Amino acid sequence: MDMTQPAATHDEGVVVVSHPLVQHKLTLMRERHTSTGEFRRLARELSLLLGYEAMRDLPLEPVEIDTPMERMQAWRLAGKKLCLISILRAGNGILDGLLDLVPSARVGHVGLYRDPETLEPVEYYLKLPDDVGNRICLVVDPMLATGHSAVAGIDRLKQAGCGRMVFVCLLASPEGIACLRKTHPDVRIVTCAIDRGLDEHGYIRPGLGDAGDRLFGTK
Q1: Taking Cα atoms as reference points, which of 125, 135, 120, 110 lies closest to residue 179?
Q2: Which helix (H) or strand (E) holds 17?
Q3: Which residues have a Cβ under 8 Å from the Cβ of 10 and sit 6 or more positions away?
Q4: Active site residues
Q5: Which strand (E) or helix (H) includes residue 39?
Q6: Following DSSP, what letter does each residue of 140-180 receive, concatenated?
Q7: Pairing of β 204-205 and β 197-198
Q8: Do strands 165-168 and 137-140 pair parallel, antiparallel, or not at all (unpaired)?
């Protein structure tokens, strides 16, 4: 069977990065017997690949440089450096890979946890660069499940002055996408896959389990 497909598909503000390497590494992450160290390494590698797509339309400006052969006009990123914003704690699992890609990026953190009874997010921490409103922000969290944490985080970031944002995750559910797109239609979503849906506990199925626990070996 021919499984060839485009490297990325775009639909209604959602980008699914279906590149073969992305899908292969995601499959390894889904395996229940994948070790904590291997899971963490794969998350870092996948974040690099997701980052290329999430940053596809960054603005450029011309610059004159000297190569070993001659002078030429080349291109470099324009404007303020990016800001990478991790939704704690699991967001840190893909933050490091993005920093490998753009080591000069500024970093912010939003601390949220999900109430196990209501499934609603509760904020406990916020730290952002002072000029975050002048930067393109990539908001990172491995899982877009119910969408409540993503919406709460982006709500808070907009209150703090953030403008243009892209939400980057490893996996998304249709419910999470619908929730985030309804509330923040201006925020593009970049993910590796859209899974079947949520179970009664708000976990993505078939999913890969609790990303935070698997990243940090806490279960």
Answers
A1: 120
A2: strand 14-17
A3: none
A4: 114, 118, 210, 213
A5: helix 36-54
A6: E-SEESSSHHHHHHHHHHHHTT--SEEEE-SEE-HHHHHHH
A7: antiparallel
A8: parallel
| 3-state SS assignment for residue 44 | helix
Distance CA 157, CA 86 (A): 11
The DSSP line for 126-150 is: EE--TTGGGS-EEEE-SEESSSHHH
State the CATH architecture for 8-216.
Answer: 3-Layer(aba) Sandwich (3.40)
* Average confidence (pLDDT) over 19-24: 94
**Would you call the peptide bond into 114 cis, given omega within 30 degrees of 0 as the criterion?**
no
Q: Pairing between strand 71-77 and 60-66?
A: antiparallel
Residue 9, pLDDT score: 63
Q: Each residue of 48-62: pLDDT tens digit?
A: 999 999 999 888 999
* pTM of the model as a whole: 0.88
